[in-house]
Amino acid sequence: MILRSYTMFLALVILMMGSAIAAEIKHPIKHYIYFNHRELNGENITSDKALNDPRFSGAQIVYTWRSLEPEQDRYDFAAIRHDIAYLDSIGKKLWIQLQEKSFTPRYNVPAYLLSDPRYHGGIIKQSMLSAPERDPRKPVTDDEYGWSPKMWEAPVRERYQRLIRALGKEFDGKIEGINFSESSIDIGVEDSKGNTTFPDDFKPQEYVDAIKENMQVLATAFPHTTTMVYLNFLPGEWLPWTDKGYMRSLFAQAQTLHMGVGGPDLMPYRKSHMGQSYRFIKDYPANLVKGMAVQDGNLRQINPRTGKKIPWKICSILPAITWV
Length: 324
Description:
- The chain is an alpha/beta fold.
- The protein contains ten helices and 14 strands.
- 29% of the residues lie in helices and 19% in strands.
């Protein structure tokens, strides 16, 4: 999910199941400070002294679809160019998180998607009440929702893919990596038996197919840059009990495309997370990149063996993170 900036980071090639895997890793482990937004002129990035720490390789910065395409077919990549120049000047690299979903009431897609009828509304409302970073002690409020583009609609997907290709044309080989936002989308109504009724225009398989198609476009657009897909949860499937093959097929697609895999939250004590994408990340080939973002709310986890929260130093200082 989208969270705070310099106190969180993306660790590439996270070792999730012990030293045996560590011996097989072919890539150096790198850490990137995560910025969930960009202030005017990138002031929150240029003023962040932690970027000068040699333990960090650079910054993972969120750029929304809306900010990169303020009007239809008019792209504005000035912020990315500025951030590349600044990071290069201090010996660091940029990792782009291309954010099409939102986890607040503000949408992250261009306005024309909402007004032009060919896009069928463009976005769909999603709940945030089940978000892993949400503090369970917090009272429920009426603004705990976000918006996801209707990526399963071909016209919406085609517009997104145009943006990806435009980014690749200018920045392939100039940045360290690029990833989409997470696969999770919380829509539909669940009954007491755990069955979910989805909106009439939504089918889980079409959503999965849309992710696959976008992965293909991303890998093709950035042949000289590390590409990564964030996989955590998928609608219509809850592993291991309800296995429709959705998650399995996305990891297979990523492997075929030689893409990196990862996710937005490092939560090893959550059975829900361990049962979904984590087990696939564990088995993903060691010669391909794995990454995990340590984000807000992750540090509230309690280690069941110690009864204590995850030590901050484990998440922010160690050159590698190994969960055994």
